[in-house]
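It is worth pausing here to work through a concrete case rather than discussing structure prediction in the abstract. The textbook approach is simple: state the sequence, then state the predicted structure, then interpret. We follow exactly that order.
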Amino acid sequence: MRAPSRIALTLIALGSIACASPLAAPLAIAPLAAEALGPQTLAAATEDGSVYVLAEGGPMTSPVRLRSMWRRKATQTCDGDYMVMSERAAQSRRAGIISNKLYEGFVRCVSPEGEIPR
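Step two, the predicted structure:
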C-alpha cells in the first residue's frame, strides 16, 4: 500500500477542520498556507549602512535550511563578504501550533580592499 500523498493529507486535515468549530478553522489553516508558500528571504538596507536579512518559512521548514538561506541572501546582498552584527531564530505559535519559523539578523557588508563601499 502506498503512503498518502501530501495533497491527500492536506484534504484530510481540511475535512477534519470543517467538522470542528468555526473558530478553529483559521488557526489550523494558517500553518498549511504558510507551508504552501515555501520559504522566502528578503534583505533591506538600513540608514546606518547595515543590512537586515530575513529568511521565513512554514512550520515544517528546517531551522538549518532557514539559516542556510539567510547566509546565501546575505552573501548575495553584499556581493561576497559580510560581518554578522546580530542574528536570531524564532518561531510563532497560534493556539499551541507552530505557524511559521524565521531566521533574522543584521549584517554589514565588507568591501574588498581598495574599493569604496556603496
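Step three, interpretation. The chain has one domain: 6-109. The chain has a mean pLDDT of 76.
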